[in-house]
Design goal:
This protein is mainly β. It contains one helix and 22 strands. It has two domains: 146 residues, Immunoglobulin-like (Sandwich), CATH 2.60.40; 143 residues.
């Protein structure tokens, strides 16, 4: 039954948006692509009216506020898209059905309504244009796992499996589908007198189709806010390498070590580990070179 619903959603979506053309993103966050013939990808004639259509696909199980901008390469003196034409977009959350993400889709048209763009008074040598769509949005993605904490790793507790070292791979973690995700967590527990030191080696991975930019969570490029918590344990984590609570994510993979020392009253217990990543993300798609056909002057 679920397969039938999923096929129906895909079929309805394809009928609604008329398909996409040209480059598109697959980031796991909010993805986008140009709608078919919006703009034409082969050629645009001088004086020809055209529009730009972008389809947005939200894979995140939360509503997302985006800024979507379109621009082109020729000077504004020759028409086309004036400067950077931007729009604030609200897109509703994806649905989670039987552990499967059903994305929410939205189409956005520029310049909107019955308005169109066109190129005029093209000079000699203005033979091509490139049209770009830039999408920027804030995102908070979460990753969780149940971990076992043991007071004294040297003592075996009958009938209890609670290792002082534990590894969580990509498939062991419950996490949001997002452009930056937790790929792996390595847990180690070290007794220190009456307290225990919990060490978490966290591997982060970033989709290479986009970048973390300055925005609501950080004024610095490539910086995301990392927050690590245990639901039932009064533990404060200190993570390195960080700048305050921010991690510089300027490459596709990053390893962060987070450490907390706390006192355990029980011999062992299971707790919920929660890791949240907050950042502003930007993706760009480009049509590539589109031929501009200049009107021939008749003398």
């Amino acid at each position: 039954m679920f397969l039938l619903v999923l096929v129906s959603v895909i079929f309805i979506s394809s009928c609604t948006n008329g398909g996409t053309s040209g480059p598109e993103t697959r980031t796991g966050g909010v993805d986008m692509g140009f709608l078919l013939n919006r703009p034409p990808l082969d050629e645009i004639s001088e004086g020809q009216s055209f529009t730009v259509g972008v389809t947005l696909t939200n894979n995140i199980p939360r509503d997302v506020d985006c800024e979507l901008c379109v621009s082109d390469t020729p000077s504004d003196n020759f028409g086309g898209i004036p400067g950077s034409d931007c729009r604030d977009i609200d897109i509703k959350s994806a649905q989670l059905i039987n552990e499967e993400i059903i994305p929410e889709m939205k189409e956005v048209y520029f310049p909107g309504g019955d308005n169109t763009y066109s190129y005029n008074n093209l000079p000699f040598g203005a033979d091509t244009t490139e049209i770009r769509a830039t999408l920027t949005y804030n995102i908070v993605s979460r990753t969780s796992a149940f971990i076992c904490l043991i007071k004294d790793p040297t003592i075996e507790i009958p009938g209890v499996e609670c290792d002082y070292q534990e590894s969580f791979s990509y498939n062991d973690l419950k996490r949001d589908y997002a452009p930056v995700s937790v790929d792996r967590v390595e847990k180690s527990i070290v007794p220190e007198g009456t307290k225990n030191r919990l060490i978490l080696d966290i591997t982060l991975k970033k989709n290479q189709q986009g970048d973390i930019v300055s925005g609501s969570y950080s004024n610095d490029e490539n910086m995301l806010v990392l927050d690590v918590n245990l639901a039932g344990t009064d533990a404060d984590f200190i993570c390195t390498p960080t700048k305050g609570d921010k991690v510089k994510m300027d490459e596709s993979s990053k390893e962060v070590k987070c450490v907390s020392t706390f006192k355990m009253d029980q011999d062992y217990y299971e707790d919920s580990l929660d890791i949240s990543l907050s950042y502003t993300y930007r993706t760009v798609i480009n049509t590539g070179s589109i031929d501009l056909n200049k009107k021939e002057e008749i003398y």
